[in-house]
Amino acid sequence: MKKSINLQFATIIKSLHSLKSLHSCVLQSCVLGLLFSSCEKKPAGPGGPPMGGGTPEVSVITIQNERVELSTELSGRVAASLTAEVRPQVGGIIQNRLFTEGSDVKAGEVLYQIDPATYQAARDGAKAALAKAEASLLPVKLRADRYKELLASEAVSGQDYDDAVAALKLTEADIESAKAALETTRINLEYTKVKAPISGRIGRSSVTNGALVMASQATALATIQQLDPVFVDVTQSSAEMLRLRRALESGQLTNNERQATVMLTLDDGSLYPQPGILKFTEAFVDESTGSVTLRTLFPNPKLTLLPGMFVRAALQEGVKDAGILVPQRGVSRNPAGNAMVMTVGADEKVEPRVIKTDRTVGVNWLVNEGLKPGDRVILEGLQKARPGTQVKAVPFQEKTSGH
I need a surface site. Which of 71, 107, 175, 339 has the fewest CB within 10 A? Predict the structure, then answer.
C-alpha cells in the first residue's frame, strides 16, 4: 500500500516538471516576438506623420476678390398707398347704398344717396329769392339814371341822386347774395350724393338704408384703400443707418442707382415676384425704439399684398467691388470668441488666422480683415489640420447629391 502511494506521488511530480517546461517555452516565444516587432516599427518623431504614415490631405479654397452686392433684411408692414374715409357732408336719412362691400369703386362714383327733399326745397327758395332781387333791380337802375339826367339841370338835389345810386348798389349786392345762397343750396343738394373721393377697394359699410347721418360725423360710412401700388414701411436702427452712410462716403460701398431696389419675403417664406423701390426715409428717429422708418413702394396688380401684412424687406445698400467671402463652414471661434480660419501657408503647414467678419452673405461670411487674395483656407479635413502640421492641400469641390 505504501509503495503504491509513493509511485503516484512520483508521477505527479513528473507532470509538474513537464508543465513548467512548456510554460517557459511559451514565455520565451512571446518575448522574441515583441523584440522582432520593436525592431521593425520605429516610433514617429515629434512633428512627423501619424502612425498610419503619409501626409494628411485637406480641401482648401483660394481667396479672391469678388464683387459683392450687399443688402439688409428689415421687417415691415404693408400699407395702402391711398386711404380715404367716406363721411357725409350734409345730414339726413340714407335712402340707398349704391355699392357692394369689398368691391372696387372709381373716384366720383356715388356710394350713398341721402334724402334730398329738404335740400331741393332750399334750392327752390334760393332761386325765388334771386329772381325777386333781380326783379327789383330794373326800377332802381332806371331811377338812378333819371336822377343823373335831372342832376345836370339841377332839377333834383345832389342828395337825392346819391340816394338813388346807393339804392342801386344795394339792390345789386342783394342779387349777388342771392346768387351765393343759390350756389350753397346747389352744393348741399349735390352733397346728398355721397361720392367716392378716390379709386380703390371699399370695405364694409357702417350704415344701412334708413340710417340717420350727420355732416362731418366722427364715424366713417366706409373706407376706401388703393391697393395697387402699396407701401411697405420698414424700420432700420439709427446706428445701422449711420454705418451705411459712412461706408458710402468712404468709398467702401458704391451705389450708382438713384433709387435702391427692394425685394420682399412674405410671411409664409415665399419671395414676392416683383421688386420695389425705396421712396424716402423719415427725417426723424423714433425716441422709443431708436429706429428710422423707410417707405418703399411695390406694384400689387394681383392684390397679393394687403394692408397690415407682415413682410421682410431686403433693402439693397450698395456694392463692394473688392469683397472677400469665406464659407461659413470654414470659420470657427477661438476661446476668446474671435472668428478664425485655418490656412495653409507657403511651406504647406497649417496656420491659424484670426479674422474680422462684417455680415453673412448667403452661406458665406464677408471678411473685413485677416485675409487677402491668394490665401488658402481649409474647408475639409479640419480635424487633421492642427497648427504647425504639414498637410497636402487639394482644391475644395462641392459634393453634389442625387447619386
Answer: 107
